[in-house]
Amino acid sequence: MTPANATLTRSGLRLGALLLLAAGISACSQTDPVRPKIETPKVAESIASMYAPMQDGEETVPGIDVSKMNPKNVRQVVDYKTGYPPGTIVVDPYARFLYLVMENGKAMRYGVGVAKAGMEFKGEADIARKAQWPGWVPTQSMIKRDPERYAPLAAGLPGGIKNPLGARALYLYQDGRDTLYRIHGTNEPWSIGKSVSSGCIRLLNHDIIDLHRRVPKGSKVVVLGPEETGIGEI
């Protein structure tokens, strides 16, 4: 074999090795699993802004992570058929919704937390009082039922972000008498959609601020019974 032929042979061997290596790299790149990119669920900017941190007087209302909310509990306008006139508040405690009846077969729907079994309010009432950042005093029945928890609070708590009534309260009266039931905010946003309260209807602070703004004193409140749950929303 001449020197020139030997040089060509060695060059061919090196070229062949490089091609085999390249083929191997290509094969690995094709067979290696591709890990999918995990993305945080996107939330519409309009919805996120409804539950963003907000300043309300001297209090700061913390924002709510909407991506962790059940979408059905987001404040929204829905189709709603009812004989009650616009301005009426209809509470469906079994579906965990509160509806503010609007014109043209619509209602503003809010997710709510409701009373534990056996402590529910039923029937109709009027909003005789509205309050911003209300104070709170446990009832005698609450103190009797759970003295360890409520007796130290018998003198009441001033209004504020740590108050269990939250940012606003609507006080329900029947025939001019206080029923001791309220529609109010909460400092426990995780409780929305659940049955946890001592009888009252609770909303997210952002939502009770919105509802409080929309309804005047004297507005009618209707709390549905189990046989009426789900009636109205289309």
TrEMBL record:
Under the heading Gene3D superfamilies, the entry gives: L,D-transpeptidase catalytic domain-like
Q: Is Cytoplasm set as a keyword in this record? A: no
Query: Active-site positions, per UniProt?
Result: 184 (proton donor/acceptor), 200 (nucleophile)
Q: What class of enzyme is it?
A: transferase
Species for this entry: Ciceribacter thiooxidans
> Locate the L,D-TPase catalytic domain: which residues?
87-224
PANTHER family given for it?
L,D-TRANSPEPTIDASE, L,D-TRANSPEPTIDASE ERFK_SRFK-RELATED
| UniProt similarity note | Belongs to the YkuD family.
Instruction: Please identify the protein, giving its name as recorded.
Output: L,D-transpeptidase
A Pfam match is: YkuD
Q: What is its EC number?
A: 2.3.2.-
- Keyword list, A-Z: Acyltransferase, Cell shape, Cell wall biogenesis/degradation, Glycosyltransferase, Hydrolase, Peptidoglycan synthesis, Signal, Transferase
CDD domains xrefs? YkuD_like
Which pathway is recorded for this entry? Cell wall biogenesis; peptidoglycan biosynthesis
What residue stretch is flagged as signal peptide?
Answer: 1-22
- Gene Ontology MF terms in the entry: acyltransferase activity
User: What is the top-level taxon of the source organism?
Assistant: Bacteria
